[in-house]
Write a structure and sequence with these properties.
This is Metabotropic glutamate receptor 8. The protein is an alpha+beta fold. It is built from eight helices and nine strands. The strands form four sheets. The protein has a three-stranded mixed beta sheet with strand order 7-9-8. The longest helix is centred in the first third of the chain and has 26 residues, at 81-106.
């Protein structure tokens, strides 16, 4: 028999050719010898000759789609631009804050340092230092220890700062309110009393953190949702501390309360004499801080599900 193609070999007497690796057979109804080859797509792999199955959530199909392999786990690296820029700014802040602290210590007994309220100034500078230092904990590789320190120091720096400012503005307010009524000085305006009030406010923040430790012990989690792309080969899992957005805001909530209360006292003390020049800078600081927080909260929650976060 001569074939029209001129090829002397016999043509294959089959309805369908074998499927390639990673493809399943979809048999034509009523014709068991005929099938269509369909590729396993997405996060599916070839489980058998006729079926594709979905890989477990923390896994993706291998190159041949004949099985599943674990998804690569990533974290924020120190050499990443998202880490380098904050670390650089934090280092500048830490150097500047340390310079001010050293200057205060060196001239600790001078009239200018005494007039500024040495004790509250040291507490305020400590809070500012902690706010810059928390950057390194936020970038460090998450583990139980790092996650525990993040919970403790996340809101502690701002709590130190706002507690010191609140105590100072409250003291100014009480002094001038008492001056309208009598010449007797109000109670609890000595440096020792100011420190006791400040650390009492800070202890509430620490108490809340320890309750958080008891209710939900710190641990790490791998989040596959944020980096689970359409292309399984590009999928990644993000190693992070198990701190939800709501828990993060709740941790900062007490600091926000201190800030709002301090702002109220700053408004009340805005009319103090010009010679008492401490109240107005505090007031200006609290007004701008409120604006920053009002912008931060909606932006933070509005971008919590975005791919760019």
């Amino acid at each position: 028999m001569r074939w029209k193609t001129g090829d002397p070999s016999l043509p294959a007497s089959v309805c369908s050719l074998p499927c390639r690796t990673g493809q399943r057979k979809k048999v034509v109804k009523g014709v068991p010898c005929c099938w269509h080859c369909e590729s396993c797509e997405g996060y599916h792999y070839q489980a058998s000759e006729f079926t594709c199955e979905l890989c477990p959530y923390e896994m993706r199909p291998d190159t041949n789609r004949t099985g599943c392999v674990p998804i690569s786990i990533i974290k924020l690296e120190w050499h990443s631009p998202w880490a380098v820029v904050p670390v650089f700014i934090s280092m500048l802040g830490i150097i500047a804050t340390s310079f001010v602290i050293v200057t205060f210590v060196r001239y600790n007994d001078t009239p200018i340092v005494r007039a500024s309220g040495r004790e509250m100034s040291y507490v305020l500078l400590t809070g500012i230092f902690l706010c810059y230092a928390i950057t390194f904990l936020m970038i460090a590789t998450p583990d139980v220890g790092v996650c525990s320190l993040r919970r403790i120091f996340l809101g502690l720096g701002m709590c130190f700062s706002y507690a010191a400012l609140l105590t100072k503005t409250n003291r100014i307010h009480r002094i001038f309110e008492q001056g309208k009524k009598s010449v007797t000085a109000p109670r609890f305006i000595s440096p020792a009393s100011q420190l006791v009030i400040t650390f009492s406010l800070i202890s509430i923040q620490l108490l809340g953190v320890f309750v958080w430790f008891a209710v939900d012990p710190p641990h790490t989690v791998v989040d596959y949702g944020e980096q689970r792309t359409q292309d399984p080969m590009a999928a990644r899992g993000v190693l992070k501390c198990d701190i939800s957005d709501l828990s993060l805001i709740c941790s900062l909530g007490y600091s926000i309360l201190l800030m709002v209360t301090c702002t109220v006292y700053a408004i009340k003390t805005r009319g103090v004499p010009e010679t008492f020049n401490e109240a107005k800078p505090i007031g200006f600081t609290m007004y701008t801080t409120c604006i920053i927080w009002l912008a931060f909260i909606p932006i933070f929650f509005g971008t919590s599900q975005s791919a760019e976060r």
